[in-house]
Amino acid sequence: MSETAKDMIQEQNIHADDNEERLTPQGRPSREKTLSRRMLARMYREQGPLPQETVSWLDAVRPSLRSECRNGPRPCPHVSCRYHLFLDVNPETGSIKLNFPGKEVWELERTCALDVAERGGVTLEEVGQFMNLTRERIRQLESLGLQKVRTTIQERSLEDDLTDFQTDRD
């Protein structure tokens, strides 16, 4: 294993018996870490692929519908799920962002974004803690999401008006 890969893995490893959260010099929780596609490829070459029977077993036990996972074990062990809060995969670059580099999956209070959404009535501060983001960044994302919804509604109403106009002309 290359020295940079070893250093990165050692930096991210926190033992389960160590309950102290890693803090920055400013006293805030440590920020997310991104593993580039190049780093992941290097680690894959050094460690090799998972055995096919392991991959088949993982695919068989992973829920495919929300109704299957709603009452599943918590914290959720299916880190590859797109709604899992432990990591995010960027589809454009193939990089993986570890949202909580100082914690293991079983140490997270909440692991599923859908569970958080179903709970409802969550403050920006709480959402920020679940996602390891600041309250201000959550507010910015909320504002951006609402703007996208408004734009989509406006575009659809314009399309409806255009459709009505075309049918009136015919």
Explain what the structure shows.
The chain is mainly α. The chain folds into 2 domains: 3-120, no CATH class; 134-170. 50% of the residues lie in helices and 5% in strands. The protein contains 7 helices and 3 strands. It has helices spanning 3-12, 37-47, 52-61, 66-69, 113-119, 124-131, 135-169, and strands spanning 33-35, 87-89, 96-98. It has a 3-stranded antiparallel sheet. A hairpin with a 6-residue loop joins strand 2 (87-89) and strand 3 (96-98). Helix 6 (124-131) crosses helix 7 (135-169). The longest helix is centred in the last third of the chain and has 35 residues, at 135-169. It is globular.
Topology:
Blueprint: H1 3-12, E1 33-35, H2 37-47, H3 52-61, H4 66-69, E2 87-89, E3 96-98, H5 113-119, H6 124-131, H7 135-169
Antiparallel strand pairs: 1-3, 2-3
Strand order of the largest sheet: 1-3-2
What's the N-to-C terminus distance? 70 Å
Oligomerization state? single chain
- How much helix is in the residues? 40-55%
Q: What can be said about the biggest beta sheet?
A: 3 strands, antiparallel
Number of domains: 2
Strand content: 5-15%
Broad structural category: mainly alpha
CA radius of gyration is: 21 Å
The number of distinct β-strands equals: 3
Order of helices and strands: HEHHHEEHHH
Count of discrete alpha- or pi-helical segments spanning 4 or more residues: 7
Query: What are the low-pLDDT stretches, counting only 5+ consecutive residues below 50?
Result: 12-19
The shape is: globular
Q: pLDDT average, as an integer?
A: 80
